[in-house]
Amino acid sequence: YVDAVRRGRSPRAGEERLTPEARRFEALALSLRTPAGVPAEALDDDGLDGLVERTGGRAVLTVRGRLLANVVTGRLHGGGVRGSAGTMPGMLEPDADTSRLVTAVGGGR
What we know:
Number of helices: 5
Radius of gyration: 17 Å
Low-confidence stretches: 79-96, 98-109
Strand content: 5-15%
Distance between the termini: 45 Å
Order of helices and strands: HHEEEHHEEH
Number of domains: 1
Largest sheet: 3 strands, antiparallel
Structural class: alpha+beta
Shape: elongated
Helix content: 25-40%
Strand order of the largest sheet: 1-3-2
């Protein structure tokens, strides 16, 4: 990085061009991780008990939900693009049963 900057070159290693649908999904995925959350209708909450709290038409991650944010992100609806958590190596499929993980990570509280 430093060498590239010193030589007057861009330190950028690459770039990714997102479709409009992917941009909408990325915006939702980032918003989910904020205190404001996402619009409640943007999230399929089946099997997310204890991970998401619905307040004032918004879906907000709980403390345990923050620990498993990639699983919750996989349930977002964003312009027809489903979450990518299930396609990343080492990540859970969006439809994975999270009950054992929540117990292990959150102490079952």
